[in-house]
């Protein structure tokens, strides 16, 4: 039986629980596409699965996205054929081969190299859906983006600028702030000097010190309280991650002080994720203004295609530049995760298969 390399965990813990194992090369089932991985993206969510912050059944194949070439397709797949360049959002992507439901696969534009495609997918789709659906940024809004030199942060900054917002960017060093500025951030705040200081600086960059329309926060625990202080009346807090740990329990009546909105969105709630071996039911829908169509089926290939198409358009137009921090080998997965968790990175980390 043909085998391929995959990163698995059979218990939770630090990077020492990461195992490089050989598993059978999957056969694509009905509605599935077998992809030969070229690059897999390294994402914070993989570290949450590893540590147990996000519950999963063990053993577990790690990796959440990748780019590669279609090797073969299962019964009923018409959109993809052998040799196509594709991206996918499916669990188990730290592997040479992966069978993925076709609804989680999209074509890569001809002129986009596979490393760039892998580098933009999850973080780009996260940034795009948060700016469109969690709090819809409007021209002239002033927003705050935390960890703005990170993978998701840099894309949030660029997309928010493309959508006409003023962007206040935070990061933990001047070097990172300079990178955020080079990607369009209007105001820079080093948030490592304590909450009182960064809150004051952020408010100082807003009209009459009234606060920002929205905060996009992937840092979580350490910034949450300050976020409530820098929001203007009726502002929105989009708390979408836990890089510093999960946000502590919170009494919702505190939102009433300024009639704030609090969201804790996940990309997979906007763009369905399904790794089951069964093909997902297909419900054809018109694509027009899909993002704003309240009745849209969240879990369809049309939604995935729609957002991938939007994202690739911003890339092609030069409005979103893709930043690859470093490319690691599969054997170096532990180092890649350590680097991501260690705050030493900017932009995207990739695994080359
Ligand atoms: P990043 O590249 O942004 O790396 C995380 C950054 O967070 C660090 O570089 C660091 O920047 C900052 N940070 C602040 N405090 C800490 C800390 N205590 N430990 C480590 N890092 C810290 O990662 P990603 O772009 O991959 O992910 C960013 C966030 O987005 C994560 O929380 C992730 O879970 C979330 N996310 C959520 C999704 C969703 O669907 N909700 C989807 C994708 C990502 P600095 O040094 O400047 O502080």
UniProtKB/TrEMBL annotation:
CC terms in the record's Gene Ontology section: cytosol
PANTHER family: QUINONE OXIDOREDUCTASE PIG3-RELATED, QUINONE OXIDOREDUCTASE-RELATED
Source species, domain of life: Eukaryota
GO molecular function, one term: mRNA 3'-UTR AU-rich region binding
Keywords tagged on the record: NADP, Oxidoreductase
SUPFAM superfamilies: GroES-like, NAD(P)-binding Rossmann-fold domains
Protein name per its UniProtKB record: Probable quinone oxidoreductase
PROSITE patterns cross-referenced by the UniProt entry: QOR_ZETA_CRYSTAL
Location of the Enoyl reductase (ER) domain: 13-351
């Amino acid at each position: 039986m043909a085998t391929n390399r995959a990163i698995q965990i059979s218990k939770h813990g630090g990077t020492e629980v990461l195992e490089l194992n050989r598993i059978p090369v999957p056969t694509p089932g009905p509605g599935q596409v077998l992809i030969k991985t070229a690059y897999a993206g390294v994402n914070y969510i993989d570290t949450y699965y590893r540590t147990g912050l996000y519950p999963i059944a063990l053993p577990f194949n790690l990796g959440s996205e990748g780019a590669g070439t279609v090797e073969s397709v299962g019964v009923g797949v018409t959109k993809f054929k052998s040799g196509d360049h594709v991206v996918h959002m499916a669990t188990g992507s730290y592997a040479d081969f992966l069978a993925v439901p076709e609804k989680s696969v999209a074509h890569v534009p001809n002129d986009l190299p596979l490393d760039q495609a892998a580098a933009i997918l999850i973080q780009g789709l996260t940034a795009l859906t948060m700016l469109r659906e969690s709090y819809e940024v409007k021209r002239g809004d002033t927003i705050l983006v935390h960890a703005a030199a990170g993978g998701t942060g840099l894309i949030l900054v660029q997309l928010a600028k493309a959508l006409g917002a003023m962007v206040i960017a935070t990061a933990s060093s001047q070097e990172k702030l300079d990178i955020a500025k080079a990607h369009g951030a209007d105001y820079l705040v080093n948030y490592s000097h304590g909450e009182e200081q960064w809150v004051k600086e952020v408010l100082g960059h807003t009209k009459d010190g009234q606060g920002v329309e929205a905060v996009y926060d992937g840092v979580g625990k350490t910034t949450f309280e300050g976020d409530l202080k820098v929001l203007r009346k009726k502002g929105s807090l989009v708390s979408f991650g836990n890089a510093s740990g999960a946000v502590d329990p919170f009494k919702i009546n505190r939102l009433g002080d300024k009639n704030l909105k609090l969201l804790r969105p996940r990309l997979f709630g906007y763009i369905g994720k399904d790794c089951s071996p069964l093909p997902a039911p297909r419900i054809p829908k018109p694509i027009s203004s899909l993002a704003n169509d309240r009745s849209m089926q969240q879990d369809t290939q049309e939604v995935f295609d729609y957002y991938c198409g939007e994202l690739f358009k911003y890339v092609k137009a030069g409005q979103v530049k893709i930043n690859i921090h470093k490319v690691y080998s599969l054997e170096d997965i532990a180092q890649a995760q350590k680097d991501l968790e260690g705050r030493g990175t900017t932009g995207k980390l990739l695994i080359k298969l």
